[in-house]
Amino acid sequence: MTIDSKLGSIIDRFDFPGILGDCREVKTGHINITYRLRFALPDGATRDYILQRINNYVFKKPWEVMENVQLVTEHIRQSMTRQGIDPKNRVLRVVPVKGGGNMVEDGDGGYWRAYDYIRHAKTTDRVESPAQFRQIGAAFGQFQSMLSDFPIEKLHDTIPHFHDTRKRVGDFERSVQLDVAHRAAGVREDIEFIRSRGEVMCRIVDMLNAGDIPLRVTHNDTKINNVMLDADTGEALCVIDLDTVMPGSALYDFGDAIRYGASTAAEDETDLERVALDMDLFAAFSEGFIASTAARLTPVELENLPVGALVMTYENALRFLADYLDGDTYYKIDYPAHNLDRARCQCKLLTDMEAKRDGMYTTVAALCRRFT
Ligand code: GN1
Ligand code: MG
Asked: Which one of 31, 224, 320 would you pick to mutate in the ligand 1 pocket, going by the greatest count of ligand atoms within 8 A of its CB?
């Protein structure tokens, strides 16, 4: 793509080597704007980077996001080195800004940051096999484990109350009452579906508040496309998208990965007949995740992992529907009813998870016995 002078001047401020040869937008993710840059080095080789404009509607204090990212990636790098793993290409590296710092302010309120591109890697939006999903489970589990000795008080809450289900239920109710986009009348049944589950879905928040489960460093956005896979072998290389790394519950990370990856359909599938929880994929991810976290998580966390799947699916349904009612201010959308379609798909998935709840518990309990 051609680069306008504004983007060019932002790129100039980062400490990139060589001469910019190519710049293309990467269109995954609902939040940030992302580009892949390719630089030509004097010896003829090329080097790739990721440049992102941090969405400052979503992240009110982008500098706190970057502080978290720096701290967490450094911790993981050290942890890998101690375990004899070469961290290169396995953990994100922030590209410094010329003259210091890790972010560029563009003068229009936009904040930009850059990472080394994870080489020879791909991502997938749909799970291709149970074995692949098991690997992704292991990758998110290792991420969790490597951060289990991280001093959690150093982390900023980059989106306060991100998984505070009770607050989200309250905010949802406000969106229904305000009805700024005049859409509530058309989605009464969907609203009732969300309302009817408001209290039971606060289970994780309640367990955290009661001290039944501990606060942990959590990724908070464990979609499968946030793990880079080796382009040839499919091996999980690197966990990316660390913007929402915050104190939270391990159940969130387990649950969101199941919500997205173990569904038989895409997150915005409109043919609801096709939307269900695939129990083979559930078991595969659980195996990878539990094998790599069993030594760190408490028995109460382990046994309650399935709660995470239900709560995260509920939360996403609620958030998509709230954004639809708010007139689509938060998520990027491709067409006017996109958020409604996403919400309905998540509600259908949740209904199927509710029917398969016992099976999820049985699977998790068996894996816990095997790995603890
Ligand atoms: C957003 O940017 P992306 O697509 O990784 C959202 C998640 C949602 C997800 C739903 C900061 O993630 O919380 O679960 O969309 N991220 C933020 O696809 O709100
Ligand atoms: Mg994200």
From this structure: 31
Please tell me the number of the ligand nearest to residue 30's CA: 1
Residue 110 CB neighbour total at 10 angstroms: 16
Domain limits, CATH 3.90.1200.10, in the chain: 130-371
- Give this prediction's pTM: 0.93
Residue 107 neighbours by CB distance under 10 Å: 9
Domain 130-371 belongs to what topology?
A: Aminoglycoside 3'-phosphotransferase; Chain: A, domain 2 (3.90.1200)
Is the beta carbon of 30 within 6 A of some atom in ligand 1? Answer: yes
- Please tell me if the CB atom of residue 253 comes closer than 6 angstroms to any atom of ligand 1: no
221 ligand 1 Cβ < 6 A? yes
Per run of 10 residues, the mean pLDDT along the chain (length 372 residues) is 83 95 88 94 95 92 96 96 95 96 92 96 94 97 95 94 96 98 98 97 97 97 96 94 95 98 97 98 98 97 98 98 97 96 98 98 98 93
Whose atoms come closest to the Cα of 241: which ligand? 2
Ligand 1 atom index nearest CA of 312: 14
The CB density around residue 245, as the number of other CB atoms within 10 Å, is 25
Class of domain 5-118: alpha beta
Range(s) for CATH 3.30.200.20 in the chain? 5-118
